[in-house]
Amino acid sequence: MAGTHKIKIAARLRPRLDHEIDDQGIQITHDQDEGPSWICVPNPRDVTQIFRFPITSCYDQDSTQEDIFEQDVRPLIDVVYSGVTVTIFAYGVTSSGKTHTMQGTKACPGVIPRVVEAMFEQKAVLQKSNVELAVSYMEIYKDECYDLLVDRETAPKLPVRENDVGQVFVANLTSIPIASIEEFVAIYSQASKHRSVGATNLNRASSRSHAMLTLEVTMTDSLAQRSLTGKINLVDLAGSENNKLTGNDPTRMAESAAINKSLSVLGQVVHALNQGASRIPYRNSKLTRILQDALGGNSVGLLICNLAPGTKFRQDTLNTLNFAVRTKNVENRPVVNERDIRPQAKPHFASIQAPPPKLAPAVLQPLEAVAGLSRGPRPSIARVGPRASLAGPSKSRVPRVSGIGVFGGHRGRRPSAVPAPISEEGEAGGSSMVQLTDKEIDERIARAVEAEVARRLKEREEIALQEKENIALQDKLQEEREKEKLKEEDQRLPTGVLTPLMAKHRDLDDELRARLTELEEKYERATKELQLADVLSPTSRKKTGRAYVMLARAHSEKGDLQVALDLYRKAETYVPDNIKLKERVIEIEWAVNNGTKFVPTPKKPRKAKKTKAGSSKTVVVGKVASGDEDEENMPMYGIHQMLEGESSGSANPLKRFKVEEDVAQAVSETPQKKAKCEVKVEEGM
Ligand SMILES: Nc1ncnc2c1ncn2[C@@H]1O[C@H](COP(=O)(O)OP(=O)(O)OP(=O)(O)O)[C@@H](O)[C@H]1O
In residue terms, where are the TPR repeats (predicted)? Predict the structure, then answer.
């Protein structure tokens, strides 16, 4: 049985940069004994509340590249050489030091150059000529994979596929053998220029893509006729971005949206794994598809969480640590990638053999078997068409050997037990028979049988190829169907979602109830009718996000925190940039994990907007409009109001009614039916 291995978590706080204020926003404290270190972050919404995260491998601002490599990375080199895949990924907000940690500089080389050096050192220790190293390097830019080892202009989008043993790989990715560190440096420095990097307000050289460098070691044992393949994937993820801080232009915004979406799916995958969900949404982004093996798969994982100091990044730090806490519970089942490299057995003339079993790219074995090349049972070659089936001349498709005779006073006759050879007419001992020696007869039979075997093998291969193509086609169709289904599911709210809200307001008059029921029906009808393109438009996403927030809020008020958390997370999928929402997720998650009561943090006082008359203020609770410039900001504001404003528990049925109508309308809205909803709250209400 394969052993399980939890992903190891390390956290690294980068030093303050010259232009940053030293406000001690994040603290790392170490216990006296060998216990875990703590990362302490004040709640951005209530600084008296401190979140403390226990992390065993904590690196503070003074830590060096060497510290992190020696303590957490070097031990993994042996694991790679035992034939296991290792994945190290750097995660964190933009400008938190991921690229610095993974790549580093000439003066302070990071994980990548150090790993390469260690891999060559290990190869030298083994002193074997049959150890080969190869490198590949790719990036995921706007949810598409590109080869960084080929010319950027001509680099095509690469497809992601799955092999016979369920391993996901990027098809057609270049892999270059490397014989020395110098060779690697030449390849890597050239390839790094191809990576998508751009300037933002927070980072002059911000990674606009997720990059994955893979070093593969193949060790061939020709005596045992086995080969082991170990791999180390070094992943520098793009950082999550708050567009308000990065000040991105439209191009950067599009990149940023892709980055945030893929990171959000990464969070969902980790969450689903923790929940033991039956469906893990790996397929929702290329990043998670490619990291599938590292997250709940067959590789050994190390997650390096990079943190930026200062209160400016406090919210991002909380998000990163929250992700770390969730990830450390993810279990992998590492296996040894071992292959049988024996040449195919030649078919014996007397037996027809099935095509040799397809050599799986890796014969996976549990990690316990790592020490030494354990020899599993050799794959048996199934015998199809036993000798007996060939014996009967009438049934055999082996061409009859004509004019063969062994009788007639020839020396070295066959024993009588051997059936008499048959003439073309089917008569034994026909007059036209040519006298042949036993050896010649055997040779002729062998040739004929071999020809037949070859023909059958070819036939089988063609059928197998055809089947494979059919399966691939079916898989593709199935995948597309699943994708469409998932999209539909994602857009669909659970049936009867408005019911709890209705129940809460029994004081609503009959008319109001009737209206809500009507809205619910309208919503359900509309959901079915929603056009995919409309649903996926940014506006629709934001509106759907707001609907989820409403529901989450209702559940959290009921004390149903787990459901509320799930709904808030769902909302996060649609509005990944919403900071207030992220804060709410963290707070509720904290309450759920610690079994404490959730007390919403005190709301900020709402600014009163004076009308011209000065006697009343107007609060836009959720303006539903389109076609005007303000709309872009509206959904954020809407959620903000829901999070902040609703905690007042307004008993005003008019306001409540308008909010729910707005949500239902937001979800079911069609271009023709767009309308504005404004709620006026009289002064003093
Ligand atoms: N440990 C460190 N020591 C010194 N400087 C650091 C350290 N970590 C990061 N930096 C500096 O901080 C800045 C941002 O780091 P880096 O580019 O590695 O961030 P990043 O997380 O990769 O950002 P992005 O996601 O935008 O690519 C760089 O100028 C880098 O040199």
Answer: 545-578
Determine whether the shortest distance from the Cβ of 44 to ligand 1 is under 6 A. no
Domain boundary among 340, 362, 378: 340
- Point out the annotated binding site for ATP: 92-99
Q: Report the greatest alpha carbon distance in the chain.
A: 131
Q: Is residue 195 within 6 Å of ligand 1 at its C-beta? A: no
54 occurs within a structural domain: yes
Q: Cβ(309) to ligand 1 under 6 A?
A: no
Residue 438 lies in a domain: no
Which of 239, 234, 163, 171 is CA-nearest to residue 201? Answer: 239
Is residue 263 included in any domain, yes or no?
A: yes
Atom of ligand 1 nearest to the CA of 236: 22
Instruction: Output the domain CATH number for residue 280.
Output: 3.40.850.10
- Check if the beta carbon of residue 659 is closer than 8 Å to that of residue 597: no
Q: Which domain holds residue 331?
A: 5-340
pLDDT of residue 559: 84
Could you report the average pLDDT of every consecutive run of 10 residues in the chain (685 residues)?
80 89 79 75 83 88 94 95 94 91 94 96 84 94 90 86 85 94 93 73 70 94 86 91 62 78 90 88 93 90 92 87 89 88 63 45 35 32 30 32 33 36 37 60 77 76 75 76 73 56 52 60 50 56 84 86 86 80 85 79 56 38 31 32 36 38 43 36 28
Please state the atom number of ligand 1 nearest to the C-alpha of residue 202: 26
Of 600, 628, 656, the domain-final residue: 600
C-beta of 306 in contact with ligand 1 (< 6 A): yes
Binding-site positions: 92-99
CB 100 within 8 A of CB 236: no
Cα distance between residue 110 and residue 219, in whole Å: 26
CB-based burial label for 134 (10 Å; 0-12, 13-18, 19+): middle
Interface confidence, given as ipTM, is: 0.98
Residue 466 included in any domain: no
Q: What is the pLDDT of residues 184-202, one digit of tens each?
A: 999 999 888 877 666 666 5
Q: State pLDDT tens for residues 619-657.
A: 333 333 333 323 233 333 333 333 333 333 333 333 433
Decide: helix, strand or coil at residue 364: strand
Instruction: Count how many domains the chain has.
Output: 2
